[in-house]
């Protein structure tokens, strides 16, 4: 890894509240896309409506968690960030399982959507885990 990457990570850890907000808004976007865009166009994506509804409700719960953390977590933020990062990893595992289960039904567009979603959420989850375990950042109150 080059010398710039760790510096970028360190700089990003300075505002944990923004990370909670980004996670919450990303989950809201996911819930919106799944429920409002993909669900009515099941034939174009291939994932059953009931499954899309379930995934959108999970994403909505993650949204509520992230936004709540943004507003209320001031001290001891690490466990809260670890919870959402692990939840995001589990969401990706569930999504991957559903993609494999409905492989024959999924269209190319559906496969591409879920692949992109999984890549983005994995990146966010690993970044959150990295930040929550970073030794250089102490547990003082958030601004």
Give your account of this protein's structure.
The protein is mainly alpha-helical. It has one domain. The protein is 77% helix and 0% strand. It has six helices and no strands. Helix 4 packs antiparallel against helix 5. The longest helix is centred in the last third of the chain and has 26 residues.
Task: Please tag this protein with its features.
143 residues; elongated; 77% helix; mainly alpha
Short description:
Helix content is 77%, strand content 0%. The chain has helices at residues 4-12, 16-38, 42-45, 49-72, 78-101, 108-133.
The level of helicity is over 70%
Number of helices: 6
- In total, the number of domains comes to 1
Order of helices and strands: HHHHHH
Low-confidence stretches: none
Give the DSSP E fraction (strand runs of 2 or more residues): under 5%
Rg (C-alpha, Å)? 17 Å
Average pLDDT reading: 89
- Look at the helices and sheets and give the structural class: mainly alpha
Q: How can the largest sheet be summarized?
A: none
End-to-end C-alpha gap: 31 Å
Task: Present the secondary structure layout.
Elements: H1 4-12, H2 16-38, H3 42-45, H4 49-72, H5 78-101, H6 108-133
Helix pairs in contact: 2-4, 2-6, 4-5, 5-6
């Amino acid at each position: 890894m080059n010398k710039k990457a760790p510096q970028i990570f360190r700089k990003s850890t300075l505002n944990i509240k923004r990370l909670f907000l980004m996670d919450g808004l990303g989950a809201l976007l996911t819930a919106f896309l799944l429920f409002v865009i993909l669900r009515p166009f099941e034939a174009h994506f291939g994932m059953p409506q009931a499954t899309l509804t379930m995934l959108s409700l999970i994403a909505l719960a993650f949204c509520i968690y992230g936004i709540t953390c943004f507003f209320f977590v001031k001290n001891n933020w690490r466990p809260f960030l670890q919870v959402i990062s692990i939840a995001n990893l589990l969401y990706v595992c569930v999504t991957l399982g559903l993609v494999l289960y409905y492989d024959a039904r999924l269209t190319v567009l559906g496969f591409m959507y879920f692949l992109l979603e999984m890549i983005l959420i994995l990146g966010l989850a690993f970044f959150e885990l990295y930040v929550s375990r970073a030794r250089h950042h102490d547990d003082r109150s958030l601004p």
